[in-house]
Amino acid sequence: MTISACALEIAGRVETFVRETIIPYETDTRRDHHGAPLDALVYEMRGHARAAGVLTPHILPDGSHLTQRETAVVLIKSGLSPLGPLACNTMAPDEGNMYLLGHVGSADLKARFLAPMIDGSARSAFFMTEPAEEGGAGSDPSMMKTTCRLDGNHWVIDGRKTFITGAQGAKVGIIMAKAEEGACMFLIELPDPAIRIDHVPNTIDSSMPGGHATLTIDNLRVPADQMLGVAGEGFKYAQIRLSPARLSHCMRWLGSCIRAHEIATDYANRRTAFGKTLIDHEGVGFMLAENMIDLKQCELMIDWCAGVLDTGSLGTVESSMAKVAVSEALMRIADRCVQVMGGTGVTDKTIVEQVFREVRAFRIYDGPTEVHKWSLAKKIKRDWKTKHGG
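Structure for Acyl-CoA dehydrogenase, as requested:
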């Protein structure tokens, strides 16, 4: 399947918008206590994106989505600035939540919850991870302790969640909880007095508004018609969301690393040391050459995995492989960019140090590298036993 002319045109407009309109916002001081953009900044940028026709560009006016391969060329361009996905409304967790609602939500739920997310007027949060120190669900959602029980025409939810990206300031929430039937998902309006944010920690990353909150859900009553899908199918729905969401992270952060590489390349071609420009020193030139190789490999891995998802497959194996390969390669790229730039690379004079921090965090969220490798190793064992009759 080829990339359509429409998708390429959208990607071109997104790139122009991010480079000309959003990159100047990178020095804007409207940030919270841990450096994430405040909503006032987010919605101002989204106003510019709306005017430029690049708001939520991966979802077309008729409600249809670009293919995953087409989405990749657009999201990579949106990632050329850490602020780009926020401005264009292609950022996590919103992009993944929109994808899930688009595939599972009823017409009523789409009208009530999805529409304001697509038009950029509402941020959202996905409530799945739970405090490890309390034995809750992290990379293993089967450990979920948050419960839900039916009481008349409402479900009552109780539990604790942690690392809930964007919960502070979100207007839409998707909550995972455990019932007798199994895992369930619910759509809720935020804020809600039954959900108390206990703590928003300072973290190594700072690109996502609202941070990564720890919160308590105490006797939250949700109308039964706000259940997403049917009771007991929550883990199935989570996979519908998580496989493409992992890949979308790869797309966005590839865009950021492309930009970091551009900055480091410019620095190496302008800076002189020991009688010649840095690019002419083999140690520096080779690092940039290695970046070029890793960038292309990331692009190819993303395109391959996106192609699998476009066949209708859940692509859990492929997305795990892509998440590991791309996140580890991007870490190498970001690290080399810092190294090439020396002292300047660890300052906030450019976005290079932020990209380094963001990619380091990416190696953990949406499944740490080791969890994905463990899952892939289990598949290798299953396949061997099937082949050899073990």
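The beta strands are 124-127, 147-151, 154-165, 172-179, 182-189, 195-199, 212-223, 272-273, 276-277.
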